[in-house]
Structures are given as C-alpha cells and as structure tokens.
Amino acid sequence: MSAxxxxxxxxxxxxxxxxxxxxxxxxxxxxxxxxxxxxxxLAPGDVVVVxxxxxxxxEGAVVDLRTVEPRPDAVTWAERWDxxxxxxxxxxxxxxxxxxxxxxxxxxxxxxxxxxxxxxxDASNVGPxxxxxxxxxxVDPDASAAGIRAALRTRFGADLAVVISDSxxxxxxxxxxxxxxxxxxxxPLEDLRGVPDADGRVMKTTVxxxxxxxxxxxxxxxxxxxxxxxxxxxxxxxxxxxxxxxSALIPADTDLFR
Amino acid sequence: MSAxxxxxxxxxxxxxxxxxxxxxxxxxxxxxxxxxxxxxxLAPGDVVVVxxxxxxxxEGAVVDLRTVEPRPDAVTWAERWDxxxxxxxxxxxxxxxxxxxxxxxxxxxxxxxxxxxxxxxDASNVGPxxxxxxxxxxVDPDASAAGIRAALRTRFGADLAVVISDSxxxxxxxxxxxxxxxxxxxxPLEDLRGVPDADGRVMKTTVxxxxxxxxxxxxxxxxxxxxxxxxxxxxxxxxxxxxxxxSALIPADTDLFR
Lengths: 258, 258
Prior knowledge:
The structure is a homodimer of 258-residue chains. Chain A is an alpha+beta fold. Chain A folds into 2 domains: 9-59 and 138-246, CATH 3.30.1330.100; 62-135, CofE-like fold (Alpha-Beta Complex), CATH 3.90.1660.10. Helix content of chain A is 26%, strand content 24%. Chain A has 6 helices and 12 strands. Chain A has helices at 25-35, 52-58, 72-81, 85-94, 141-156, 210-222, and strands at residues 7-12, 47-51, 62-64, 97-102, 105-109, 115-117, 133-135, 161-170, 173-184, 190-191, 207-208, 230-234. A 5-stranded mixed beta sheet of chain A has the order 1-12-2-8-9. Chain A has a 3-stranded antiparallel beta sheet with strand order 4-5-6, covered by helices on one side. Chain A has a two-stranded antiparallel sheet with strand order 3-7. In chain A, a hairpin with a 2-residue loop joins strand 4 (97-102) and strand 5. Chain A is globular and about 55 Å long. The two termini of chain A are 32 Å apart. The model of chain A has no long low-confidence stretch (mean pLDDT 92). At the A-B interface, strand 1, strand 9, strand 11 and helix 6 of A face strand 1, strand 9, strand 11 and helix 6 of B. Strand 1 (7-12) of chain A pairs antiparallel with strand 1 (7-12) of chain B, so a sheet runs across the interface.
C-alpha cells in the first residue's frame, strides 16, 4: 500500500506542439517536462497523465470520414438523431458489442473492453481544419503508457508512472469525467479490503479506483479547450507496480448493466 | 466560464477531531484551515471538499442497527449474500426505488436522487467501537454545503465554494471514486458546448463534471484510512455561482440504465 499523502500537486505541462502522426510523443513530453518550472526532477510516485487524443494522433489512430461508407442502419439512425452517419459507421465497426443505441446515444464496448459513448471515437481537438477527421482509441493504451514511461525513465534516470486518460460519461449523472485508458508503473486499483479504517474496523468493500481519480484530477489542470494534453500529478502516491488497465474493467458477464 | 488553470493544489486539512452528532462542523473545519500551513488566506476559486461521513455524523444521520427490525425479504437476501439484514433493511427503507438487487449488490436511488450502492448507507469510519452504527446520506447535501460555506465566509471574510463528497462505484469499472453529493458556490457542470476547442472547432457535447472531478482529486489527498475528512482544492477554478447538485443528476425517465 502506498504512503498516505497530505498534499497533491497537478501541473499542466507547458510547450507541447500540435501532435502529428508519427511524432515521438515521449520525446515531446520529455521536452515539456524540462520546459515546465518545477516539474523536474521527477519525484517518487510521480504520475504523467497523457490525454488520449494526442496518443491517438501520434500513433495514427485517426480515420478520415471521407473514406467511410456508412451502412444503411447507420444512415437511418444518424439522420434521426442529427449525427454524422460516417462516424456512427466507424463506431459500429470498432465495437465488440453495442450496449445501448437509443435516444441519440450510442454506447459500445470497444475492442479494449471499455464501455463508453461512441466507442471513444472523437472529433474534437483532432487538428486544424479537421472537419472530416476523428480519432479512435489507441489500440493498446497500456502499451502506449509503457512506451512513454520507458522513454522518460531512460531520459531522466528516474522511475515514474504513466496514465493515458480519456473523458467518459456515466449513467445517472450528466457530464464527463476523465478516467484511465491505460497504465504503466502503477496499479489502477488500490485494494483496502482487510485494512483497518481510521477506527480500527476492517473495511469490507473499499477498493479505490486511484488511476481514474488521478485522470480526473489531471483534467482539472488541463481543461478541455486550452491545448494542454499532458499533466504531472505529484503526491498522489498511487500503488506502484506492473499492471494493466484490464484489472479495472468488470467483465461483461459479471456486470449488472450490460 | 472559469479561467483555465495550469496548476492545481490539493491540501488535506490537519487537525480535525473525531466528529460527533451536534458538533459545529463548519467551526471545526475553520479551525483546521487555520491549523494547516498554506491553507489561509483563501484564494478566489478555492473549494473546500468535505467527505460525507463527517457531515452525516455531525448532522446525526446515523442509525443504530440494534434498533432495526429487518423485513423477511431483507433477511433472506442478506443471508444468501453474507450481508447484515438490518443494514439491508435501512437501505430499502431509504430507497426511492431499487435499481438492482442481484449478485450480492444492492443499488438504489436515494431520496436525494443519487443512484448508488447500498443507498449510500455506510458502516466504515463511523466511530470507535461502532459495530452497530451506520451513516445515512445527509438529508440535503446542498444545504449542508451551504451552511459550511456561509460560516467559513463569515469567519474568513472571503468567498469559497464547498463540495460534499462520497465514494460511489460505477458500472463497467471496478473500484470507487469520489463524486459530489452537494455543492455550494459552484456549478457542478461546466458546459463547453458551443465553445471552440483548441483547433477552433465548436465542441458539440463536452460538459465537464467538474464538481465530481474535484471530489475525486480531493480523495487522492485524503485517502480512505487516514482520518482526514476535509481537503482544500486550490487552482481548479470551477465555474462559480449558486447551483444545486440536482443539476448533475439525470432524471430516471431520461437515463438509459434504470
């Protein structure tokens, strides 16, 4: 279990350029760390949070909708709900299963196992004059995180954890919060079951979704419109170790909201 | 819309005693702010995040299970899933509706409109030697937040926002994250629809659940076992104004996961 911090600092990194397919994202994040006052040296337990959009762009996980021929069902549904039928087609192509497709909302399970609106396919912040471009989720966000972590460890000679984040809606509550899509160097969950609480009572059910909370905290510093895609979260001291975001996903046959 | 911050700081407040029914929680939080290095003076956009448990305890929203006679259905279900039938009875009494009651998981909609496991009824951290005590949610968490805000404004002569937080599970992902139960002085959502993104494209669907993200960020500094129930979140600069957490709740007839 990690130490219990009293202060957490979230620093939006300065100086990242517009990301293009093929860019060395880890090198650019390293440059941004070096350019951000107070970010270096890295401290134990530091987490670099990278938003999905720049990862997808660097990895070329982008689709030009002008190349997409929507199936008739996608055209019908998109017309009814004022959506782009080509984007609906992309979501359905990527989907492992459709969880909900009603009232203009399309929720799917992605190949990575995430259940989210539009399968994570997103048109905002893709690039200048990018009316027909959408990003897909990174193919393997854990691998994306691991690659960035390895490069930054080598460059700065210090360990760190990396979280790839994305904005998901939730049932029952309006609005989106950032959650973890991929992790490297930390466990997405901290399991306190069996640990005494402040009164010495053994807690029965507390599992902290710490990677998701770190992603949400980072979003507070990044915002949605500022062109800042990477944050450093210092002092959260998550449980460190080798793990996968898959540890945090409920299998479809166990979930109560299929 | 709020200014876009580049740094956010989360400070767990020092020095809160064990909270008892009838305690002046706002006064104790004020003392803790004064006792925590760097917390004062309050800065514009500061948010004090108070976890549900201490609010419920101060307000006397506590039930002694020794006074509860469970209905037969509660006894049967509790025995099957190794739960306390008296706690199940309390959850069912409080519930506006039962959303799911299967596989040992009981999810209800509370009188306040929250959909959560066990209706927010919780046995951990209730007090020393408290084997038979559980907390209920505060009756009106917005009012709880408003009361704390008003007292702190008067004491320190500066405005601030207050969020009452609690830990909720989510469909599809393991673990719990802190979300907002009540707000005072801020809007729980920041609606960026119609605002240009970093590329000048008008964003169609982005509504940030900023109060929930602030609650999650605070949890990173508070942890679950450390006896620290209040945090100051500085620099997130949420949209300020008079509002209610009800703004963030999807009505049952609109939700896709009833």
